[in-house]
Amino acid sequence: MKVSFYAISKIVTLCIVSVVLSLSSCKSEPDYEEMTLLHFAQSGDTTFIVHPFMADEGAELVLPAFWSADSIIVRCDEGECHIDGKAIGHEWTSLPMGPSAKISISLLSGDVEVSVRRSALDAICINTSLGDVECVTKTRTDSGRILVRKADGEMQYVGRLSSIKGRGNTTWLNARKKPFVIKMGQKVSLFGWAEGKKFNLLADAFDKTKLHNWLALNIARDFGIRFPIACRHVALWINGDYRGIYLLTEPVDVGKRGIDIADIEKETELVNGHKFSANDVTKFDADGNVLSDTVPMSKAHHGAVASADNPKDISGGYVIEFLPWTREPDNKFGTPYASLCLRNPKFPTLEQLDYVKCRWTKVLSMANDGDSAIFNYLNVDSYARYYLLQEMLHGCDVCTASVFHVKDKDSVDSLFYAAPAWDFDIAMRPMCDGMKDEARILQLRPSVMNKVLLFPNLYRIASFRDTAQSLYFNAFSPVLHHYFGSDCIDSMANVLAKDVALDKRRWSESYDYPAEIEELKSFMSQRVSFFDDDLQTPENEYFTINVDFDFFDMKCCQWHVVKGDSFELYRPTSYWKTLDYVEDDFGRRYDFSFVPTENLNLHYRWHDATKFEKLKWKVAEWLNK
Q: Which end of the chain is more exposed for a tag (fewer CB within 10 A), N or C?
């Protein structure tokens, strides 16, 4: 095939024009990589630097609160640039910021106006060894250096960072702003907390108020939930990159500064002379038969270290979590009623697993029978407190995930406790579009609907209900009115407002922060008022309406409707938009708005089963992506 000289010259011309246009386009807006070549630091400490980033409305430079405006220095890693006309090269150059809120930077690719902002929060600055936090995952760690310093300049810690890795589930998978676990090179006391090495950095990416976890952890502490977790808002920089607001917390681990019980995992390691790993775990089916190494843990019934010695006393040191249906951890085990997993020990021996499994099979059996003897195994005060906290704060994970059951050795205490409080970022707000009176929903009462959930079945037991009601009025209500009936939320929102604005620009988000705060206050004010009234209203003055969405056992809710009042059912607008009708236990159908004349158990139904199966598959696919 012959190609004419004219055709070739035309192609070359088009390529040249394309390159020129591309270069011209680059010149108008420096890219992210070029912005990171600019290093800003504080005179006397060039270890921890910050650099500008490109936001939707232009370039931003966020400085730590403790930096002094007249002691800022800058250098350019490659080439040369100009800031406000001043040449900046490879050497550190003094650049007092003064009162100006903008600086003009001339880079090789073009000119850019940079808005200079300053955080108002305590700062954490991390330099990783690899220099790229994107290399960090939940299983791949990095190390480095870390600085923790208060906004007023008081140093908390500067030194070696032993490790940083990812953490979390939904936030890690679905949010651009990632949460982390960090481990210091030595034990440190931050902000007056107990000494330790390990800390969590919660991103709170789905919480626009940045207050949900902070409120929940502080309310739990003041209400007397065992093993309270200390927390504090900080501004985070990693490798000079501003990452926004994070909530620094103590770990949810067994230890003196976390879950203060015996550590059976360490005791077992000591007896055997080494630590265990996933390679030591033998997988079993439901009948106790050993499975092949090629069978994934998700297909096994349980796993344990089959050939290991035990400490003399294996009655305590356990942390158990109900297994969410969205996860399949290696340390899971099954009962006839629910799947659970062991958080501690992570790699149990067969005897330790059998001890926990037998005990929890009995506990769940008694719960389903409404047997008050269950409190020979569970501390009724602890579970009543935890029930009230979870029910009041109205989270989408309510008592199905991140709920821990802990037990010390029998010589200390033979009972299980529900603690500590954890994971409330998606809470304290309406969860369903278009649902009327969502602040009046009870998620942990409809025990007739779901035999998997523990707390609804506990609520059937009179001694548990009496304990919960007494605790509410004598201990919980005063705490709630302190946080939701005063200016507490407004005061904390004012502290965070400046950094929320910076966080929004960093992650290209747009929302009305004051409006989010007002929604939080309004929703929780309604919820507290509802509980104040509901727990004092005799049961014979209202009808109980249990509603089962019949969807993976995900949502079973209860309403109390005063006799004579109308009740409006929730007509789902998202995943449940294919809903066809609602019926009771006897097959009687109901309109979406009616006046109840009796207690009812209502079920959402679909005419076309294929629509429902397709819907379940769609959600399962989303959850497993």
A: N
The 3-class SS string of 135-159 reads HCCCCCCEEEEEEEECCCCCEEEEE
Report how far residue 391's alpha carbon sits from residue 440's, in angstroms, rounded to the nearest whole number: 11
302-305/318-322 β-pairing: unpaired
Q: Report if pTM > 0.85.
A: yes
Report cis status (omega within 30 of 0) of the bond before 420: yes
Q: Tokens for 248?
A: 């620094």
- CB of 534 closer than 8 Å to CB of 560: yes
State both tokens at 16. Answer: 């040249």
Q: Give CA–CA dist 89/83, Å, rounded.
A: 11
CA distance 114 to 108: 16
pLDDT 10s digits, 56-104: 888 899 999 999 888 899 998 876 788 888 888 888 999 887 666 688 8
Best CA proximity match to 112, nearest among 51, 30, 55, 31? 30
DSSP element (H, E) containing 392: helix 380-393
Cβ proximity of 386 and 225 under 8 Å = yes
Sign of CA dihedral 133, 138, 142, 143: positive
Looking at the DSSP bridge assignments, the partners of residue 467 are: none
CB 316 within 8 Å of CB 409: yes
- The 3-state secondary structure of 325-375, one letter per residue: CCCCCCCEEECCCCEEEEEECCCCEHHHHHHHHHHHHHHHHHHHHCCHHHH
Q: Tokens at residue 318, please?
A: 């356990």
Task: Return the amino acid letter for 314.
Answer: I
Decide if 286 contacts 253 (C-beta within 8 A): no
Find how far residue 513's CA is from the centre of its chain.
20
